[in-house]
Amino acid sequence: MQFSDTGKKLQKVRVMQVVKTEDEWRKQLSPAAFEITRHADTEMAFSGQYWNLHDKGIFRCICCDNALFSSETKFDSGTGWPSFLAPMAQENVQESRDATLGMVRTAISCTLCNAHLGHVFDDGPAPTHLRYCMNSAALRFIKQA
Ligand SMILES: [Zn+2]
Q1: Which of 61, 110, 113, 133 is flagged as catalytic?
Q2: For residue 106, how far is its CA from the centre of ligand 1 (angstroms)?
Q3: pLDDT, tens digit, for every residue of 19-54?
Q4: CA atoms lying within 13 Å on the CB side of residue 87
Q5: Is-catalytic flag, 133?
Q6: pTM reported for the whole predicted model
Protein backbone atom coordinates (compact mmCIF):
# COMPACT_ATOMS: atom_id res chain seq x y z
CA MET A 1 0.00 0.00 0.00
CA GLN A 2 1.50 3.31 -1.04
CA PHE A 3 1.08 6.47 1.02
CA SER A 4 1.91 10.11 0.34
CA ASP A 5 4.30 11.91 2.69
CA THR A 6 1.26 13.37 4.44
CA GLY A 7 -0.02 9.88 5.18
CA LYS A 8 -2.75 9.82 2.55
CA LYS A 9 -3.54 6.36 1.22
CA LEU A 10 -2.66 6.33 -2.47
CA GLN A 11 -2.95 2.95 -4.09
CA LYS A 12 -2.35 -0.68 -3.61
CA VAL A 13 0.38 -1.89 -5.89
CA ARG A 14 2.19 -5.11 -6.53
CA VAL A 15 5.89 -4.34 -6.51
CA MET A 16 9.02 -6.35 -6.76
CA GLN A 17 10.94 -6.83 -3.57
CA VAL A 18 13.92 -4.56 -3.11
CA VAL A 19 16.93 -6.84 -3.16
CA LYS A 20 20.46 -5.57 -2.61
CA THR A 21 23.72 -7.11 -1.54
CA GLU A 22 25.20 -6.62 1.91
CA ASP A 23 27.75 -4.23 0.42
CA GLU A 24 25.11 -2.14 -1.29
CA TRP A 25 23.14 -1.84 1.94
CA ARG A 26 26.27 -1.03 3.90
CA LYS A 27 27.04 1.84 1.53
CA GLN A 28 23.52 3.21 1.64
CA LEU A 29 22.95 3.04 5.40
CA SER A 30 24.55 4.37 8.55
CA PRO A 31 26.40 1.68 10.54
CA ALA A 32 23.59 1.56 13.12
CA ALA A 33 20.85 1.36 10.50
CA PHE A 34 22.78 -1.36 8.68
CA GLU A 35 23.24 -3.55 11.75
CA ILE A 36 19.63 -3.14 12.82
CA THR A 37 17.85 -3.59 9.51
CA ARG A 38 20.09 -6.15 7.86
CA HIS A 39 21.31 -8.10 10.91
CA ALA A 40 18.33 -7.74 13.26
CA ASP A 41 20.24 -5.76 15.85
CA THR A 42 18.43 -3.57 18.40
CA GLU A 43 19.39 -0.02 19.30
CA MET A 44 19.88 0.91 22.95
CA ALA A 45 16.71 2.11 24.66
CA PHE A 46 16.40 5.92 24.76
CA SER A 47 19.25 6.21 22.25
CA GLY A 48 17.28 6.61 19.03
CA GLN A 49 16.04 9.84 17.56
CA TYR A 50 12.32 9.02 17.50
CA TRP A 51 11.26 7.48 20.83
CA ASN A 52 10.45 10.91 22.26
CA LEU A 53 9.24 12.52 19.05
CA HIS A 54 5.73 13.96 19.10
CA ASP A 55 5.58 15.66 15.71
CA LYS A 56 2.93 14.80 13.18
CA GLY A 57 4.06 12.78 10.19
CA ILE A 58 4.84 9.35 8.89
CA PHE A 59 7.72 6.95 9.30
CA ARG A 60 9.16 5.30 6.22
CA CYS A 61 11.57 2.40 5.95
CA ILE A 62 15.15 3.71 6.09
CA CYS A 63 16.12 1.17 3.43
CA CYS A 64 13.39 1.40 0.79
CA ASP A 65 11.00 4.25 1.74
CA ASN A 66 8.04 1.93 2.26
CA ALA A 67 5.42 3.75 4.41
CA LEU A 68 5.31 1.93 7.73
CA PHE A 69 3.94 3.88 10.68
CA SER A 70 2.07 7.11 11.34
CA SER A 71 2.34 9.53 14.24
CA GLU A 72 -1.41 8.96 14.62
CA THR A 73 -0.82 5.55 16.18
CA LYS A 74 2.39 6.44 18.03
CA PHE A 75 2.22 6.35 21.82
CA ASP A 76 4.55 6.81 24.76
CA SER A 77 5.37 3.29 25.90
CA GLY A 78 8.08 4.30 28.35
CA THR A 79 10.40 1.73 26.78
CA GLY A 80 12.74 4.16 25.04
CA TRP A 81 11.81 2.90 21.59
CA PRO A 82 9.27 4.44 19.25
CA SER A 83 6.06 2.47 19.78
CA PHE A 84 2.96 2.20 17.66
CA LEU A 85 -0.51 0.66 17.95
CA ALA A 86 -0.52 -0.53 14.36
CA PRO A 87 1.25 -0.20 11.04
CA MET A 88 -0.20 2.13 8.39
CA ALA A 89 -1.07 -0.90 6.30
CA GLN A 90 -0.94 -4.51 7.40
CA GLU A 91 0.48 -5.45 3.98
CA ASN A 92 3.53 -3.23 4.47
CA VAL A 93 5.02 -5.20 7.34
CA GLN A 94 5.44 -8.89 7.95
CA GLU A 95 5.74 -10.94 11.09
CA SER A 96 8.10 -13.77 11.82
CA ARG A 97 8.94 -15.88 14.83
CA ASP A 98 12.13 -14.83 16.58
CA ALA A 99 13.49 -17.25 19.14
CA THR A 100 16.83 -15.54 19.73
CA LEU A 101 18.04 -14.25 23.13
CA GLY A 102 16.24 -17.07 24.94
CA MET A 103 12.74 -15.77 24.34
CA VAL A 104 10.11 -16.14 21.70
CA ARG A 105 9.13 -12.87 20.12
CA THR A 106 7.42 -11.78 16.96
CA ALA A 107 9.81 -9.84 14.76
CA ILE A 108 8.52 -7.20 12.35
CA SER A 109 10.14 -6.55 9.02
CA CYS A 110 9.49 -4.44 5.96
CA THR A 111 7.54 -6.38 3.33
CA LEU A 112 9.27 -4.59 0.52
CA CYS A 113 12.95 -4.97 1.40
CA ASN A 114 12.94 -7.42 4.30
CA ALA A 115 14.55 -4.89 6.67
CA HIS A 116 14.29 -5.88 10.32
CA LEU A 117 12.35 -3.10 12.07
CA GLY A 118 11.64 -4.31 15.59
CA HIS A 119 9.15 -6.54 17.40
CA VAL A 120 5.44 -6.56 18.20
CA PHE A 121 4.13 -7.34 21.68
CA ASP A 122 0.58 -7.83 22.92
CA ASP A 123 0.79 -5.47 25.90
CA GLY A 124 -0.14 -2.27 24.09
CA PRO A 125 -3.01 0.06 24.99
CA ALA A 126 -6.52 -0.01 23.47
CA PRO A 127 -7.83 -0.27 20.84
CA THR A 128 -5.36 -2.75 19.33
CA HIS A 129 -3.57 -3.80 22.55
CA LEU A 130 -0.50 -4.22 20.40
CA ARG A 131 2.84 -2.52 20.86
CA TYR A 132 4.94 -2.28 17.74
CA CYS A 133 8.32 -1.62 19.32
CA MET A 134 10.51 -0.22 16.58
CA ASN A 135 14.10 0.91 16.17
CA SER A 136 14.48 4.60 15.33
CA ALA A 137 17.43 3.79 13.12
CA ALA A 138 15.24 1.59 10.91
CA LEU A 139 12.90 4.49 10.21
CA ARG A 140 12.97 7.82 8.45
CA PHE A 141 10.50 10.42 9.70
CA ILE A 142 8.69 12.67 7.23
CA LYS A 143 7.31 15.61 9.14
CA GLN A 144 3.91 16.82 8.03
CA ALA A 145 4.06 20.45 6.95
ZN1 LIG B 1 11.97 -1.47 3.46
Answers
A1: 133
A2: 18
A3: 999 999 999 999 999 999 999 999 999 999 999 999
A4: 25
A5: yes
A6: 0.94
